[in-house]
Amino acid sequence: MIDPLSVFLLLLSASTPILFAALGELVVERAGVLNLGVEGMMITGALAGFAVAHATGNPFAGFVAAAVAGAAISTLFAALTQAFLANQVASGLALTLFGLGLAAMFGKPFEGVKAPPMPAGPLGINWIVWLGLLAVPAIWWFLTRSRRGLILRGVGENHEAAHALGYDVRLTRLAAIAFGGAMAGIGGAFISIATVLQWTEGMTAGAGWIALAIVVFSNWTAVGVLAGAWLFGGVTVLQLRLQAAGVNVPVQLLSMAPYLATIIVLVLISGRQKYSRRAGAAAPGSLGQNFHALR
Amino acid sequence: MIQLVPRTGASGLWQVATPVLAVLATMLTGGLLFALLGHDPVAAIRTIFWDPLFGMAASYSRPQLLVKAAPLILIASGLAVGFRAGIWNIGAEGQYIIGGITGAGVALALHPLDAFWIFPAMVLAGLAGGWAWGMIPALLRNWFGASEILVSLMLVYVAQRVAAWMAFGPMKNPEGFGFPGSRNLQQYPSASNPELFANTGAHWGVFAALAAVVATWVLMSRHIRGFHIRAAGTAPRAARFAGVRPQVLVAFCLGLSGALAGAAGLFEVAGPAGQVTDKLGVGYGFTAIIVAFLGRLHPVGILLAGLLLALTYIGGELAQLTMQLPAASVQVFQGMLLFFLLGFDILTRFRIVRRVRA
User: Fold this and answer.
1) What is the DSSP string of B262-302?
2) Domain presence at residue A291
3) What's the CA dihedral at A75, A81, A85, A91 to 10 degrees?
4) Which of A23, A119, A200, B162 is the most exposed, fewest CB within 10 Å of its CB?
């Protein structure tokens, strides 16, 4: 018999990296920027966080470092897309490729090193899991109830109008991109510091891309992101349970589950958005378009 | 006060100059990075970019240039066609893996039959496998509006697991003493893709890559489909009014790039790699994206960019051996190259004007 509570705790833990990354990307996309570099920022955070946690013996210092590192590397993307007006899809890809390479290069000395132990938080649940759960209402409030959130959404919906009203489109987007980088960094560090407990090359294994799909799934809402992250946490836990139970299916096929589930969910939700009457209403109006003020 | 004024058309001079500038900037920054890591920057850059062609071990490394460039050029030629239309296939790595598996599957099913048509059949199977894997994101985008970027990328992870499953399961060599991996096709003459001329590295994939360059050039500059693709990329609305059906372009571009990536996978499995293993994908599908951009999405540019990035692979391996540089430095180099290229690209699209504010 499987204890439902312990399964839920596993689900929480499995969904946390994706939750952080997807919440960050949600804010970025609401500001009208499509940053495909989530995977690169996550792996950067995973390494920086692990390195600092290992050096200081303090996992929380690791998470702070991961946030800083994620934000720092995201500014490369911000510079390219906001100052040099480069294509966002290509720049995001470049960030992912660069981040994966950089982390692999600097990560070599940390292979085979163990992460410092992490003190359990309230109810025996990791502090960072709590932080992720608290970030959901916080971001919901920021996006829908705060003045700055309104400006951010305005910039994302119609950057020409926001500019005409006197809001700084680039500065808003720069801040959003850096926030997204910090969140992705924390998400990545959760994998290396709190779940796998060591550093391995390419350890984020597509979590950043799944986070991008979850933002679409969420219909660009914070609560939707939480639902999506839990769905994927659930699929991951189920898949690991089936592996452990020795089901007569090759491990390699079971481990496809999160990726196939992402595709299926993406198809269902995109189909609904495409064929519903309020077609396209959810995605921010200026998503993926660069802004160049001529006046 | 410096101002950016959009150009009416892309600047021809800067189109050519920015890739060169990007390469130089990457060398400089890369050297700086190596200096930070405690290596001699000049020696490192020379080892990566010069020694593979003209150094001591050049007789070994020069043939490798074509071996590495062929898959990059083959894949990038297909990707560039889609990128021109704003159709983002970033899952070529997955299509490459599946093409390798389907192509090798033909050979493994027929083993030990000896016939002249086996290798051509494998090529067709590789093309078909890659095409089919590329059509998944195409159809999902056409039918449901699902992002081809995310679907094609997810399918890379699925394909990697298919390869692992094949290597450990259905395609495992029955005479392999229990080790994972298929039979080695290099030891099966009817199915192998050997070096055709001694010490050149040229296998059938090299000729396929050259054919792809010529064919995509004809397509893009002499064929109505190519005109539609360019129109859809620069002015999607205008293209639609002119009767271009976006769904047809999505299927065509993803199918074409998938098929070429699949063929690249087959040539690799039947040639340099030799067998289906769980490490079938080595990142050519991702590097080819950089090749496509560095080559300005133009067939001839892609040819040159493919050779250059092949050089970084070989030079990186050499630097790893002789200077103990980390293996991932090549990846960092390639990522930086794309960064610089995208940054300098502003010069092709904007004029930088100095203006005194009135």
Assistant:
1) HHHHHHHHHTTS-S--TT---SHHHHHHHHHHHTTT-HHHH
2) no
3) 120
4) A119
Contact B241, B56 (CB under 8 A): no
Tokens 């994939």 sit on residue: B205
Whether residue B18 is contained in a domain is answered as no
Model confidence pLDDT, tens digit, residues B286-336: 999 999 999 989 999 999 999 999 998 888 888 888 888 877 888 888 889
CA distance B188 to A293: 63
What is the pLDDT, as a whole number, of residue B69?
A: 93
The answer, yes or no, to whether residue A274 has pLDDT greater than 80, is no
- Per-residue pLDDT tens over the stretch B175-209: 878 788 888 888 888 888 888 787 777 888 889 99
C-alpha–C-alpha distance, residues A107 and A99, integer Å? 11
Round the average pLDDT of chain A to a whole number and report it.
88
Nearest CB to B150; choose among A99, A201, A212: A212
The CATH code of the domain that includes A13 is: 1.10.3470
Is A284 part of any domain?
no
Give the span between the Cα atoms of A195 and A203, in whole angstroms: 11
Of the candidates A132, A139, A235, A255, which has an alpha carbon nearest to the alpha carbon of residue A191? Answer: A132
Tokens of A171: 């500065």
Q: What is the rounded CA–CA span in Å between residue B163 and residue B180?
A: 11
| CA-based end-to-end distance of chain A | 67
Length of chain A: 295
**Average pLDDT of the segment spanning A206-225:** 90
Across the interface, whether the CB atoms of A84 and B4 are under 8 A apart is answered no
CB contact under 8 A, B338 and A98: yes
Chain A touched by B246 (CB under 8 Å): no
Residue A84 contacts B where some CB pair is shorter than 8 Å: yes
Residues forming beta bridges with residue A111, ordered by sequence position: A199
Number of domain units in chain A: 1
B173 within some domain? yes
User: What are the residues facing B350 on neighbouring strands?
Assistant: B6
DSSP-based three-state secondary structure for B6? strand
Please give the tally of structural domains in chain B: 1
**Token pair of B76, please?**
């990038």
Phi, psi of A66 (to 5 degrees): -65, -40
Residue with tokens 């048509």, as numbered in its chain: B117
For residue A191, give Cα distances in angstroms to A15, A42, A127, A264, B228. 10, 9, 14, 24, 45
Quick check: B330 and A101 CB within 8 A? Answer: yes
Say which CATH number the domain at B114 has. Answer: 1.10.3470.10
Phi, psi of A199 (to 5 degrees): -105, 130
Q: Which chain B residues are within 8 Å of A34, Cβ to Cβ?
A: none
Q: Are B309 and B290 in contact (CB under 8 A)?
A: yes
Per-residue buried b or exposed e for A32-61, using 16+ beta carbons within 10 Å of the residue's own CB: bbbbbbbbbbbbbbbbbbbbbbbeeeebbe
Give dist(CA B80, CA B290) in Å, integer: 10
Rounded Cα distance, B132 and B77, in Å: 18
Total residues found in chain B within this entry: 358
Backbone angles phi, psi at A114, to 5 degrees: -95, 145
Domain that holds residue A122: 4-275
For residue B112, say if its preceding peptide bond is cis, omega within 30 degrees of 0: yes
Three-state DSSP class for residue A12: helix
Would B327 be classed as within a structural domain? Answer: no
Our measurement of the distance from residue B298's CA atom to the centroid of its chain's CA atoms, rounded to an integer in Å, reads: 14
Band the pLDDT of B356: cuts 50, 70, 90.
low
Integer Cα distance of B182 and B204 in angstroms? 21
